[in-house]
């Protein structure tokens, strides 16, 4: 990727400066972790049962999406994923959760597929 073009910064400009910035911050974090005294670990450092449930719920939800996306397509797999995530992790009523899941799955598919021309997987049902 070239750093610059006749019109201005090229495609290599942003990645170069971001990598330099991240490298400097990484060196600072490594120095602080190595040479500074750390605070003692808090007694409530480990999550409660609710925290473990959330971690397992997110992990299982992501596995579900990866496994079902080729067969069910983007719309249905994301609808089930969002419905599960919002119900398991949220505190909204079921109607609000279903509406947000519909907008997040079918609405996002419509925007990406029709407006942005980014093809997303369509499942065996053709929707």
Would you write up a description of this structure?
This protein has two domains: 32 residues; 67 residues, no CATH class. It contains three helices and two strands, in the order E-E-H-H-H. Strands 1-2 form a two-stranded antiparallel sheet. The longest helix has 41 residues. The radius of gyration is 22 Å and the shape is flat.
Helix-strand layout with pairing:
Blueprint: E1 4-5, E2 8-9, H1 13-35, H2 49-89, H3 94-115
Antiparallel strand pairs: 1-2
Note the beta-strand portion: under 5%
**SSE order:** EEHHH
Count of DSSP helices?
Answer: 3
Work out the helicity level.
Answer: 55-70%
The number of distinct β-strands equals: 2
Brief descriptors of the model:
127 residues; two-stranded antiparallel ribbon; 2 domains; 3% strand; mainly alpha
What's the short version?
This protein is mainly α and 127 residues long. The protein has helices at residues 13-35, 49-89, 94-115, and strands spanning 4-5, 8-9. The protein has 2 domains: 4-35; 49-115, no CATH class.
């Amino acid at each position: 990727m070239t750093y610059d073009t006749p019109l201005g910064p090229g495609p290599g400009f942003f990645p170069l400066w971001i990598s330099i910035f991240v490298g400097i911050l990484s060196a600072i974090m490594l120095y602080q972790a190595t040479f500074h005294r750390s605070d003692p670990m808090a007694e409530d450092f480990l999550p409660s049962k609710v925290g473990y449930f959330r971690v397992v719920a997110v992990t299982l939800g992501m596995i579900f999406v990866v496994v079902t996306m080729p067969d069910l397509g983007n719309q249905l797999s994301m609808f089930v994923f969002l419905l599960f995530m919002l119900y398991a992790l949220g505190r909204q009523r079921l109607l609000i959760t279903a509406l947000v899941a519909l907008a997040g799955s079918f609405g996002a598919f419509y925007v990406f597929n029709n407006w942005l021309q980014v093809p997303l997987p369509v499942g065996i049902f053709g929707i």
